[in-house]
Amino acid sequence: MSFIKNYIEHQTLNRRNLLLLSAWGLCGAAASSSLIGRQAAAATSPDPKICWSYRDRTNPFWNSIVAGGEAFVRSLGRQSGDLINLINGGSSEKSLSDIQSLLSRYGSGVALAVDPNDMPNCRPVVEAVSHAGAYVSTIWNKTDDLHPWDFGDNYVSHMTWSDVGPSEQTARVLFDAMGGKGGVVHLGGIASNNPAIERQQGFKNALKAYPNIQLLAIQAADWDTQKANQVMSGFLTRYGDAIKGVHCASDTMAYGVIEALRAEGIENMPVVSYDGNPQAIEMIAKGKLLATVFTNAYWAGGITASLAYYAATGAFKPSAEPREHREFYGPTAVITTKDAQEFKTKYIDTNPEYNWKDFWSLAKGPIRYKS
User: Fold this and answer.
1) Which of 90, 113, 259, 290 has its Cα between 20 and 30 A from that of 105?
2) Confidence class of residue 26 from pLDDT cuts 50, 70 and 90?
3) Cα(260)–Cα(136) distance, rounded to whole angstroms?
């Protein structure tokens, strides 16, 4: 379990260092204002710049996302370093500013893969890309009224994951491990994030089937290991022995929770999480974590970049595709102690090889919205 302690100790320093790698966050922000209000003609480019805009590569999930993006770039005969990294550190303002600066420099010659960080930020990101005549594929966060087909070909696609069902499954695994009774706490992500909302809903859905499980508290820890450690320490001070299980909306928060439990001498409390990071899978295989949900971040990172790139080159026309190819769910799988070792061998010890031109091979159908 020493990696958790090291992860917490080095997370802040590593994040600061990685932010320095954000090539366009350091300069050119002033020039980005020229993009606003200018609609560029749609155009394709034989050699677009490929970029991934994301939160923080010190997070294992985002590390897998970018590793998939790099694998796609290598499939083109390029070097991994040809992928431009825009690291926003969880700031929607920085996310948009970096993207505007990138567009200011390269104009329509950009193929962008991005998590906009929160739902409201997706629209200005997409509008900036569309005005520049570039191409963008998004994941996770957008508002329900924003759709790729409203932007012609420039907004290529949006991928998210149907988190309610898998989160409910992990909650049921947790409640069963608790013997169907006792107090439980939930640590959530950023309140305005789609996955945080859906994972909390799945947790609440499971509670309805377990009348003897008592919900003690729900609190956001913003996907952050250190904050989750602090939140869990506060829960232990407030509720003490009444806590019999912990439901986390991400693996990285679960690491902070487990360290907080260990600090109090608690070694065997059942904890479940989400994302299927390599460390989490290894912990499940060793019985240190009860369950997680694998979202195949590696494939998602590669295929999101691939969609933007091949649209930018004119290899396919997004507006000619059916809507289920413009907005779709990514794959999920609940991993428990029963299958963790086999899963680790197949997906963690080595990455499967994917055909990056088979865009929707692992897609799980069109996104469905609540009426």
Assistant:
1) 90
2) very low
3) 40
DSSP 42: P
CATH dotted code for 164-294:
3.40.50.2300
Smallest Cα–Cα separation from 194: which of 273, 251, 141?
A: 141
Output the six-digit token pair for 311.
């649209």
pLDDT digits (tens, 9 = 90+) for 204-214: 999 999 999 99
Single out the residue of 71, 5, 72, 141 nearest to residue 309, CA to CA: 72
The arrangement of strands across the sheet holding 135-139 comes to 84-87, 49-54, 110-114, 135-139, 155-160, 327-329
Mean pLDDT across the chain, nearest whole number? 90
Q: Are strands 271-272 and 213-220 parallel, antiparallel or unpaired?
A: unpaired
CATH 3.10.180.10 fits 2-161+297-330, yes or no: no
pTM: predicted TM-score of the whole model, two decimal places: 0.85
Judged by phi (left if over 0) then psi (alpha if -120 to 50, else beta), residue 283 lies in alpha
- Read off the pLDDT of each residue in 133-146 and give the average, rounded to a whole number: 97
DSSP class of 366: B
